[in-house]
Structure formats: structure tokens, C-alpha cells
Amino acid sequence: MLAGPVATLNSEEESDPPTYKDAFPPLPEKAACLENAQEPAGAWSNKIRPIKASVITQVFHVPLEERKYKDMNQFGEGEQAKICLEIMQRTGAHLELSLAKDQGLSIMVSGKLDAVMKARKDIVARLQTQASATVAIPKEHHRFVIGKNGEKLQDLELKTATKIQIPRPDDASNQIRITGTKEGIEKARHEVLLISAEQDKRAVERLEVEKAFHPFIAGPYNRLVGEIMQETGTRINIPPPSVNRTEIVFTGEKEQLAQAVARIKKIYEEKKKKTTTIAVEVKKSQHKYVIGPKGNSLQEILERTGVSVEIPPSDSISETVILRGEPEKLGQALTEVYAKANSFTVSSVSAPSWLHRFIIGKKGQNLAKITQQMPKVHIEFTEGEDRITLEGPTEDVNVAQEQIEAMVKDLINRMDYVEINIDHKFHRHLIGKSGANINRIKDQYKVSVRIPPDSEKSNLIRIEGDPQGVQQAKRELLELASRMENERTKDLIIEQRFHRTIIGQKGERIREIRDKFPEVIINFPDPAQKSDIVQLRGPKNEVEKCTKYMQKMVADLVENSYSISVPIFKQFHKNIIGKGGANIKKVTGQPVPGILALLTLTPVALHHSGFGFEGESLTSQPWALSVFSRDVSFSQSPLSSQIREESNTKIDLPAENSNSETIVITGKRANCEAARSRILSIQKDLANIAEVEVSIPAKLHNSLIGTKGRLIRSIMEECGGVHIHFPVEGSGSDTVVIRGPSSDVEKAKKQLLHLAEEKVRKELYTPLCLSGFAITERALQQTKSFTVDIRAKPEYHKFLIGKGGGKIRKVRDNTGARIIFPAAEDKDQELITIIGKEDAVREAQKELEALIQNLDNVVEDYMLVDPKHHRHFVIRRGQVLREIAEEYGGVMVSFPRSGTQSDKVTLKGAKDCVEAAKKRIQEIIEDLEAQVTIECAIPQKFHRSVMGPKGSRIQQITRDYNVQIKFPDREENPVHNVEPAIQENGDDAGDGRDAKDADPGSPRRCDIITISGRKEKCEAAKEALEALVPITIEVEVPFDLHRYIIGQRGSGIRKMMDEFEVNIHVPAPELQSDIIAITGLAANLDRAKAGLLERVKELQAEQEDRALRSFKLSVTVDPKYHPKIIGRKGAVITQIRLEHDVNIQFPDKDDGNQPQDQITITGYEKNTEAARDAILKIVGELEQMVSEDVPLDHRVHARIIGARGKAIRKIMDEFKVDIRFPQSGAPDPNCVTVTGLPENVEEAIDHILNLEEEYLADVVDSEALQVYMKPPAHEESKAPSKGFVVRDAPWTANSSEKAPDMSSSEEFPSFGAQVAPKTLPWGPKR
């Protein structure tokens, strides 16, 4: 009943525009507004809704008699206040309480709506006395009070501030209990009764109708029941055919429901009278064809004939089909049933199960040919059965059967299979890595090999394919299996530290080994396992060969990892390295690595460095070195050129800021020894180094070195830092080598022999002669080695040692005891150890403790220093004073403030330290008094060279000679000669001085360097400065090579200048000169000249190579093949360029004069020919290709292409073809072009046609769905819009009103503007 009016209204809206009053309803009259202030009248009340505030305020009043807490004394405190605070915290609302005159409680609640409602409910429940009432409504209405998920009940409780209890479904009671205030109970009771009253208007009715008549009531495709539901507004539920229920359920308004029931009853009674039935037998297998997809065939018969067809359930064995309908229509229906049943047939074809996948073809290609011709035929292959089932229209099934039988016959004639037994443990080896072995066999013999998965533990392997190929594959697989049975596995023990070296960077070295022994599988353990076992598996002979090869490799690695340490005086390290690392490179025969190498030396390496101990890890020793190699570039140097040829080692030097003097050499033992000898010889050449050998029994070596090497280190430090080298432990050698300045070596020798004598007395029990010392058992009994530790502040140590070790030597000479101070790396910096005879140690201890005690007694003293010398002590942030404090036990020296003419200097500290400091200050003053200043004339243009990088050379001279050097200010506009004269031995041939400015014989002011210090020191410093003046030599270099020597942006010449510490002057290009001038120190010029000539040789060789590389070859190739030769993003042409090391140039398309079919190849002649052959090979393959156009529905193009072309690229890669889709706006949007080899093109076309068929079905379904989703009525909306139109407007022709003036501010006033009063058609202005 509702459908009719709705349809009418819609049609009216579409045909006629609304009236003016409908579109713009008038505002209510003023009177009406006053009378009905509570409920605004008119259509506006439905249109306009007030905007609700997010925060609201409500006031609740609790009468005195309903208050829970009536005690006046407790207002604002006690239980009532606690409850209000809890409510505020729980709900987030704000509560304010006040007492009215009648002692009632007024509560103002502010907050968001939900919070206010919850707070109100809590207030009523906890601050107001509660009443209760019951209301009875029908049990079936209770669920409507509760609502979905109880939401309606919760809203009702919040609105009324009550608690509503509804009996459980299993409770027969219909009483609902409401608890709350009287007002809330009344409101809740009213709402519950209102819900019940609404439900009373609705009804539910059940009608029993025989199951057989349900199809007549529903109608074809449920249309009849749908019409009844739409007309009556009643919901009608007919059980589906699969549910064995007879009742039909009606739900709706009582009146409309009665109409619907009456109509259904009428149809039922009518059909019951008029219809009859007939039963026919139809094969069970044909029932599904009668039913049709989703029951469509039954609905189709019902629509055409009005006859219902009843099919027995699928689980029933009955084949009887019952037709129910009017007698005259049963015949037609029976004909249709038989037609449907016989329209499809089921047939089977005998075919061995192993042939099934060949019949299906690669990716279903063979089967697709049949299914494309006969799409309604369903072909089913059952695994393990030797038959194929066909189902579909009879004619199509017969044709498909013939084709499959022919295919089976052909396959049986030309295919064969065989099954072989191979132990399953060999299966994965037969398959090979990533299937390499089995794929090779498949491709080589054109067969299919089926190997069972590991989980089955089956030994049976099946080979299918061409009979000859099957036999060959069988033979090869059996041979492989036989070979594997003869395999052996061997475990090779290789230290884990060598594993990464053997594997190589990115596995390069292990790949070489595997290529050398392809039949051997080499497995390295996981690094996390810390295992040394490397497993080899393969044929016995090959495994043995591989084992020997790897053992030899490991032996080489072990041999090359031998290392020795060489102590070299720190000041000579830079000479050992050479400029740019030249010397080191020559020693090692390889570049110095640029990484920081942390060397953790083994005890063996420790012995190499001269320290032998047992049972202690080197990392615990102070000389476990963190050695940092220098990152340098290399060049030729005449120094040590012979060493480079003889040695191939790695040399690591300590960092510049490290205190270590040890250089570590790694490589083969013989090479390491040779490199050490060369390095030591360099040191000998550089300084007056003496070397003495002392014979000390090997058993004493460890005790002489001492715990953590402290004992031997103390001797080395005491004797000016000499190097003492002990032989390797176990070598049997007694020779200890002492190396250093002659005087220091002799001193160290005496102390070492003296210490050895003491050790002998302690450790030896028989007479022993050691270097002239006769030791008897009696002497041994008289003396024993004794050790004592004492403590002193670290700042006292230098004072206790004294200048040059004088004080501590005096104590040792007096007592005979050895005193060892802590090294910089020792944790305990206060510990001083005394070693020797007990009496000597005690005496030394007494002397040292007295000295330390004196140092602890702080005194203050002063001395007079002329103010003119004050600046010397305080300049450079008081460096001189800091040095005095460090040397003399931390004594504090205070000079008067600058500006005051006081000469009093205060000293504070230990008495002895203060006296020593005063003495030192006096010495400095005497030096200053004796100081002279001399001049050294060196042309200004050489000053920068003399200073060296960052002034390093000058700083070295000032340190060495204890002088001060001052350079003059630079002359702003010096006059230079046009052509600088050649300098020899530091003499200036032309200094650019103007003759009229000064006497030609006298030097210029800007050339004079002043040197201050003691006279003899100043003279020595002057000689050192003059030795730094550069000289110039000339080298002849062909002019055409100059630009290559200079390099890009001067990088080449800068590198040489930095490397050889010289200045290289290349003549200007316009001079066309072959002469290059080299200016620098005499020591560097020979190296620089040799380096330059070597660079010339390299450049000449490069020129010759460049000439050979410039050979050009042209290839004629049709321009249409150029894109294919270039490849996607240049991949193909780049591969050819890299592979043949050539440059390939394609013609410029924009150049009309250039032949478009000529490709130019540049490179070595042999390489260009190889590249040409590669290009012509590609062209030959391209010429064999064909292009075919395929009609492909444009609606499926996007799906075939895929996201970002991923799908189409996959197809092109798989079939090795090129597929081009039409551009937008092409004449034929369905034409797709496939290019490639003929067989590939054919396969690709079949594949994309299959995809088209699959995707097109989805497109058709989608379009069909869109038809239902967009009714035809909406299609008219595509017409141009007429805009918004209304009828009966005040300004129309039949109206006296004019149309509103759009430009008038009166007709359309702006917001806030004052407008003159005017009577408007839509009501009085308020």
C-alpha cells in the first residue's frame, strides 16, 4: 500500500517543478509564535534545527523530604561532599550545590551532554531517596524496550535518571520494575507504555502452506511475493527449498498484514484446486541440468509454463521428478524438462594418468584450444585415474571427445615413461642447487622428471617424454646416483679466522675453488658456531685433490700471517714511511692500508718484539699495541728501491700521538726478516745508532722482562729509550740485542748484566759464569732478590727522578737497588716498586720516603727577577711555568701582574722542589742575559718553503736549538724579475730588488730573518735555515704531455708537488717550451725528477694505447632495429659496450645529413669486430621475428597490462615477445600487436586470448550489475540542467509581484546592514 503513493510522488517531482510555497514556506505569524512558543508551527520547524552547544548546564532540585542527607551541619562536608566529588571525577561534569529556602537541595551540573546525563543519574541514585514502581506490558514487547545491544534501555535510564529492571527471557513475569525518584519513575513508566503501544499496532502471523505450493506463492524469480510485500508493506518470509518447513511468516502493521495473508491464502486455495501432478523418471546425473545454475532452469520453466518442478534431494537415490501445474500446461513443461535433461551429456575418455598433464599442456595451452572452441564443455581430470570426464552439450561433448582421443592416441605413439629406484637421500643432489642439475637434464633430453618430495621418503623417480630422451635421462640419472654412492665426505680442520679469507670478498675465492673442483661440494660452518670444521663432499679422488689444494692454501695463509715487531725510535718513523709512504711501499711491495688496524698479538708475536713470557695474554700487557697505519699515496723513491723487490710484507706503524715505538711487520717469515733488516738499516743510516749483543741464559729472559714488562721497560727508559730485543722463546738463543745511541747502549748493557747477576743469585744453584761474573753457591746464600712498593703523588715522580734521571740514579748508585716508576698506561699511577737485595731495598725505601716526606712539607719562598724577563715566563699561556711545575713536583710560581714594576716572584711547594725551581729559573735568566740576536738573509720568496707545512720546519729548529726565530713582514708589492734565475745551493741569482731603493750588495729588510738565543745555538740554527733554501733544476718534457702532467684542474701537478715536497713550474702554453722547472730542497730534487720522468713514461704509454683504442668500425643496420639493439633503458647496448670495452655511437635522428643506418663502433680493432658480430647477431634474430595483430577487447587492456605494466612485462619476459597496445584515439582500439619469433608469438597470442576470455566474463558481470545499480530513470539526468525552477512565484506573469532585483541592497541586504522596512511576500518582518 505504501509503494503506490511513493511512486506517484516521484513521478510528479520529475515532471513538474515545485511551487514557490513548497520551496520557500512562509514564516509563522507573530500571533502563532506567541501562542505556540513551545512548538513552532510551519514547515520551517522541520527544516531548521538549532545548533547545540558542546557544553550544557542543567539544574536539578531535590525536595527536603527526598534528600538522603538532611543534617544541616554536614552541608559542604561529610558523605554528601564526598559523593559529589566522586561523581565529578567519574563523569567529568562540574557540580555546584546550594540550599533553597525550603531546605531543598539545588544542584547545577555543567559539562558535555553525556557527562551531565551520567552525573544526573548518579545524583538521583546517591543523593535522593529512591522509590520503585512496576509496569506490566506483554512479554514479547520487552525486547523492544531493551533495544539492540541494550542501547535503548541505557538511553531511557539516562533520560529519566532511573534504574529499569526487565525480567529474564526464561522468567514468565511480564512486570518491569522501575527504581528512582517519583518524577523519574513517572517519565520512565510513560516511555515504557509508549513503546508497548507502538508494538501493539504491529503483528506477526504464521500461515501453514504445503511445501509443494511455495513456488506458486513466490512466483518466478520471487516476483509475485515481492509485489505483495511492496504493495502491503508487510514482510513475508518463505522458507527456501532446502529447508523442510511449511509455515510462511508475515510481519507488519495489522491491517496491511491481514491483506497480505488474504492474498496468499487466495493464491494457495486457487492453485490447490486447479493444479495436478505427474511423475517422470529422469537420470540422477541429469537432475542438475534440470535445476540449472542457481535454480535458474526451474524458474525458467515456472515462468514459461506456470508449472512447478519438484526435484528429489541430492542425498536421495530417487530419480522421480514431479511436475505440478494446470493440466493443459503439464505437457509443455514435461517437454522442457526432458529438453533440459538431455541438453547436456557426460562422457569419458580412457587415457593413462601420466599422460594427463601432456594433454593439458604447458599452462593449459592444449586444453585451452578445445575449451575455446567449445566453452560449455567441462573437462575433468581425476588424479590417479586413467580416464578423463567430459560434461556439456551433447554435440560439443562428442566433438571434444574425438579431439581428446586423437590427442591421447598421438601421445601414446610418441611418448614413453619409465620409473627408476634411487635412494631418496640422493634426490636433493640429483636436483642440484636451485634445480640446476634436474633442469639441465629436462632441457637436454626434452623429458619431464618427477622426483617425490622429501616428506614422502619415496625412492621412485618417474621420467616421461620422448622414448629416446627417457632412456638417455634414465641412464644419466642412474650414473649420477651410482657416482653419489661412491662419494665420500671429509672434514677439513681450518682455523675459523681463515674462513673469510678463503671465501673471499663476495665469495670470489671460494667460487674459483668450486670452479676448479666442480664435483666437490664445500660447506663452511656458520660463523656463530665458532667451528673450525669445513666439510668437503664429492667423488673420492676429487675430494682428495680439493683437500690438498685447500691445505696448501691454508699453509700459505699461515705462513703469510707471521709477524714480528721492530722497535724504531719515534723520531725516525716518518723517515721509515718516506714521503707519501714511498719507503714503506718499497719495503712491503704493497700499499699501506688506509684502515685502522687493531693488532692483537699472540705470545709468539710478543717474543718477536723482544718480550718473552709464559701464561700471560699479550692483551694484558702494556705493549699490546693498537697500531694505526697511515693513509698515504705512493711514488717511486731511490731510497730502499732494492727492498721493494725483495720483500712482500704488510707494515703497521703506531699512531703519531701514540707513545709506542714498535713497528709490526706481517707476512712470510723470510720476508719479514728481510723487511726488518732493511728498516733497521734505514734507522742506522739516519742516526748514530750502536748495536751490542749480550749473552744471557734464555731461562733468565722472562724474569728480566718482569711482570707486564715493567722491569725491562724501566731500564730502557733510564738509558735514554734504548731498545732491548730478546730472542724468540724456544729458539734456544741466549743473545739479547741492545740498540740505541752508543753511550746509552753501554749504560743499558751494564744495568742488564747487573740485573742478570741478581737473578742468577736467586735462581741458579750451581756455580755459573756470566760475562765475567763468577757466582758461587755461598754468594747466592748471602743475597736474595727483594721487592717493596711505596706510594707517592704522580706530580712528585719527575722531581724524584730528577733531570735526566740524575736523582734516582744517585739513589740507585748509593743503595744498589732498582727503582721502577709506573708507566703512563698503568692504572695505579702512585705505585713505585723497588727491587734488589733486601738491605739495598730497605735503604732505598728509606731515602725515597724521606724525599717524599720533604715534598709533603709545603713552604713559600720568593726570588727577585728583573721585570724585563717576566714576559719570557708567562708568554704562550705560561708554558715555561707549566714545564717548571711538572718537572719540580708541582711547585707554584707566581709572577707579579703586568703593569706593576715589582721584581718579586713567589714560589710555593715542597722545600726541595722550591729550591730546585729557583735554581732552574736562575738558569733561564742567565740564558736570557747571554742571549744574542743574529740575522739570516734569505729572499722573501723562499720564506714559505723554509717554514714548511704549518711552520713545522721552523718549530723543529726552535726545539732542536732552543732559539727564537722571527720572520719579517711580507712586502706588499715586491718587484719580481720576469724570468726567475736558476737557484743553486741557496744563492740568490736575482732577488727582484730595485737598484735605486738600496745598495745592490745589501739584503732587503723583508728578506732578513732574526734568530735569538745563545750565540753558538743561533749560528747552528742559521746553518739549518740556510740548508732549507730551495734550489731549481730543469727537466725536459715534451710539450704535448704538459697538460696531462698538470691534470684536471691542476690535480696531477699538485699531487706530485705534495708527494716530493717541491714546486714544479710548467711554462705557459704560448711559449711552446719543453722545459719544466723543479724547485725544492736538494734532498728532494732527485726524487722529484725521477718521479716526473716516470710519469712521462706512463703518459707516453697511454698515448700509444689511446691510438690503438681509437680504431673505428661502421656497421649498417636498418634504423627500425636500433631501439631493440639499444634495449630497455639502454640495457642491451650497455652490456655490449662493457663486454667488449668499446664505444658505440648511433646516428642522430635530427641530423638529416648523417646516414641513419650507420652505427659507429670505437675501440681496439679486435674488440670492435667482436662488438660488430654481437650487433649483427641481434639483427639476425630480429629479422626472424614476425608481428601479428590480435583483436583484443579494449575493456580488458588495463587488466592485462597490470599495475605499472607489471603483468604485461611478465608475459613479454615469459614468451620472449614484444606486445604493443593501441594509443588512446587509435582507429581500432582493440588491435594489439605481438612481435617475436613465430612460435613465441603464437604461444603469447593464445595466452592473452585466454586472459581476455577470463577477464571479459568479469567485465560483462560488472556491467550487468551496473544496470541494476543505476535505474534507467537516472539516464535522463544527463541532459543539460535547467537550474532551479519553481512554479507560482510572486514575480511570474499572472502575479502582481515583480521578480526580486539581484543588485538591490534592499532586496538582498548584506549581513548587519540597516535596511528600510518593506512588506515582503513571505511574511511580516520581525
From TrEMBL:
Q: What is this protein called?
A: Vigilin
CDD domains, per the entry: KH-I_Vigilin_rpt1 (cd22405), KH-I_Vigilin_rpt10 (cd22413), KH-I_Vigilin_rpt11 (cd22414), KH-I_Vigilin_rpt12 (cd22415), KH-I_Vigilin_rpt13 (cd22416), KH-I_Vigilin_rpt14 (cd22417), KH-I_Vigilin_rpt15 (cd22418), KH-I_Vigilin_rpt2 (cd22406)
**For the region Disordered, what residue ranges are annotated?**
1-26, 969-1004, 1272-1326
Q: Where in the cell is it found?
A: Cytoplasm
Q: Which residues form the K Homology domain?
A: 129-197, 201-269, 274-342, 343-409, 414-482, 486-555, 560-684, 688-757, 784-853, 857-926, 930-1030, 1031-1097, 1109-1180, 1184-1253
User: GO MF annotations for this entry?
Assistant: mRNA binding
Under the heading SMART domains, the entry gives: KH
Keyword Transferase assigned to the entry: answer is no
Q: Which UniProt keywords apply?
A: Coiled coil, Cytoplasm, Repeat, RNA-binding
- Extract the InterPro entries matched here: KH_dom, KH_dom_type_1, KH_dom_type_1_sf, KH_Vigilin_N
Bias kind Polar residues: ranges: 1292-1307
